[in-house]
Design goal:
It is built from eleven helices and 13 strands. By secondary structure, the chain is of the alpha/beta class. The chain binds oxa(dethia)-CoA.
Length: 332
């Protein structure tokens, strides 16, 4: 039997300084703080405003934060998985650039795109490389500059998304800690409800697509909400059931921060008390690939060795799933 498990051994994060509050949004589109707060739980989000800086800027900062906190030599990193939906450029992997910039000269890198589930799927991939014994240090980064694909005249999307980045290091563990089980799903039925129409191979960018705003995110929020509530709750319940976890066994729910109401519905189906549910959506909004590592970074001090964490996410595609992971360290 394979006795190597894949544990998260370090965390890093970065969010840009610029804060876009609900109050400021009120002056940009027809919305109000009360609506945004009660419908989503969001109060403010961070935006990367500086010209010429893309997702890699935040990913590098998050990786450097992890490297300095964990005191590791970047030359020891074997591979980097860059989870993102907003790469620096459509061609030329963002992860490759990040690897070079942080001095991970012995690593290979690539990007992984699964919308808001990118980081969750990345956890599965990173863990599989560790469990197989093939690599010893896998850096998983989740970063998105959502402000680069959002139409700030569309109130259906501009109130939701924000920019940010987080990173975790996966390493082998011999005490049985780390990733225990995963239940990952996808369904192409979701393709029409959350998408960017233009800029890909079906509809290459043109003057017309730009004039029509087809390079921005489109979301049918109501439909996505419906699928997200049932999808995230279903997988979280299922992973508890098949690992014989009761609500008392689960220490923390680490759920994608898309909408506080979706998080609450998932927690309720799992029977979890509020204090076990990590939430920072009020500060950052939906940062797509960065929500899960930003939660780990914000709440790292509360996580204890041996704690049972349930991760859950839902995103465009549709993509969704749940991961059961045992936390491997106490923060120094
Ligand atoms: O992370 C990837 C996955 N994405 C998600 O999980 C997002 C899922 N969807 C959602 O979170 C929610 O659907 C939204 C937050 C996007 C919208 O909330 P909702 O409760 O589904 O609102 P709605 O679209 O049903 O709109 C309700 C009302 C409408 O007015 P009427 O028709 O009832 O008069 C909208 O026109 O609210 C209106 N509305 C707004 N009002 C103020 C829609 N957007 C806004 C707004 N400010 N920004």
């Amino acid at each position: 039997m394979n006795t190597i498990t894949a544990a998260i051994t370090a965390v890093g994060a970065y969010v840009p300084e610029f804060v876009l509050s609900n109050q400021v949004l009120e002056s940009m589109v027809d919305t109000n703080d009360e609506w945004i707060t009660t419908r989503t739980g969001i109060k403010e989000r961070r935006l990367l405003k500086e010209k010429g800086k893309g997702t890699s800027f935040m990913a590098i900062k998050a990786a450097q934060d992890l490297i300095s906190k964990a005191n590791i030599n970047p030359e020891e990193i074997d591979m980097i998985i860059m989870a993102t939906t907003t790469p620096d450029m459509p061609v030329a992997s963002t992860g490759v650039y990040v690897a070079s910039q942080i001095g991970a000269v012995n690593a290979f890198a690539y990007d992984l795109q699964a919308a808001c589930s990118s980081f969750l799927y990345g956890m599965s991939t990173a863990a599989a490389y560790i469990q197989s014994g093939r690599y010893k240090k896998v850096l998983l980064i989740g970063a998105d500059k959502m402000s680069s694909i959002i139409d700030y005249t569309d109130r259906a999307t501009c109130i939701i998304f924000g920019d940010g980045a987080g990173a975790v290091l996966f390493e082998p563990n011999h005490e049985g800690l780390g990733l225990q089980d995963e239940y990952l799903r996808s369904d192409g039925i979701g393709r029409e409800y959350l998408k960017i129409d233009a800029g890909g191979s079906i509809l290459p960018p043109s003057k017309e697509t730009v004039e029509n705003g087809q390079h921005y995110v489109f979301q049918d929020g109501k439909t996505v909400f419906k699928y997200a509530v049932s999808g995230m709750a279903d997988v979280s319940e299922k992973i508890m059931e098949r690992n014989n976890l009761t609500k008392d066994d689960v220490n923390w729910l680490i759920a994608h921060q898309a909408n506080k109401r979706i998080i609450d519905a998932t927690a309720s189906r799992m029977g979890l008390d509020e204090e076990k549910v990590l939430v920072n959506i009020h500060r950052y909004g939906n940062t797509t690939s960065a929500t899960l590592p930003l939660l780990l970074s914000d709440f790292e001090g509360q996580l204890k060795k041996g704690d049972n964490l349930i991760f859950a996410a839902f995103g465009g595609g549709f993509t969704w799933g749940s991961i059961y992971l045992k936390w491997a360290y106490n923060k120094q």
